[in-house]
Structures are given as structure tokens and as C-alpha cells.
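If your schedule permits, I should be very grateful for your opinion on a structural question. I have a record of one protein: its chain in single-letter code and its fold written as C-alpha cells. Would you kindly read the sequence against the C-alpha cells and tell me how you understand this chain to fold? Thank you for your consideration; the sequence and its C-alpha cells are set out here.


***
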Amino acid sequence: MNKWTASACAIVATLALAACGGSKDQAESAAAPASGTAAKKATVARPAANADDNTWGLYLADQGKVHADDIGMKPFIYVIPVADSQMGDDRRKNETESIVNGAGSVLIPGALLIIGGPDANVTRSFVEGLGQKVKPDSLKGVTVLVVSDAAHKDGLSKVLAPTGARARVVSM
């Protein structure tokens, strides 16, 4: 079962990365970073809660273009499953381990980590747990874009502060 889960995650990540890949000309012609006054508009609508991981991955990739277009590196996208089952728990555990083990080796300064999923509360819980497991300053210089509920912004920013990450929390 873990091979299938890992394969599915790899496929989602590959599709999401492919969706994020723009040409150099597109990147250079961007008028202003997302934090500026001329922010880009989302082109992918928020999927239904029961949409598949590929659909959510494309949505999160689009949110990365909108809210983190000032980041030059390709994003690492994590779709957090809602399923309240052993499979969902295992997948969230695997995603946590992937981020914790990737900190410093794959997730280097300048990287973009996008975390989101169908349920803002599950995403919040995931990020809170992640903040406790990641070593202090191991995400220094990494931008973590949490696509969740803006009401969680202060709490999630506090949780991620010890990791050294630059937290950006945006609403779905």
C-alpha cells in the first residue's frame, strides 16, 4: 500500500510541477510580485472537497503562482488528504516525514513549499504538527505557502516561526 501511496504522491507532484513551469519570458514579464498592488488573479477555481489529488495539486500550483510569484524555484506541493481513515493518517504521516527529511537537503533557502487540501482545519492541524517536528531553523529561507483559512494566519505563522520559514497563509 505504501508503494501505491508514494507513487500517487509522486504523480501529483510531477503534474503540479509541470503546471507551474512557465517560460523564462513569462517569469520576466510578471508585472509585480504577488505582495504588490498588481497581484495576479487565480486561473484555477477551488475544486470540490471530493476532487482528486491531481485537481487539488493543480489548484495549489495556481495559488503558488498567485501568492508566491516572487519565488524563482519550482514549488514542492503537498496535498493534505481529508480522509479520516488509516490510509489518510498514513499519508499525512508520510508527507510529514518527507518534509522533515527534505529540510536542508531538498528544501533549501529560496525554495517554495505549498501545503493545502480540501479541509482548512485538517491542513491547519497538519502544519501545527509539522511545526513541532521540523528542527529549529531547518527551513530558514524557505517560503511556506499554506492555502487554508486566513483566520489561521497568526497561529500558523507562530507555529512555523521556530523553523525559520517565511510563512504565507492565504484563504482558499
Summary: Helices lie at 2-20, 24-28, 53-67, 86-102, 120-133, 153-160. Strands lie at 75-79, 112-116, 143-148, 166-171. The two ends are 30 Å apart (CA to CA).
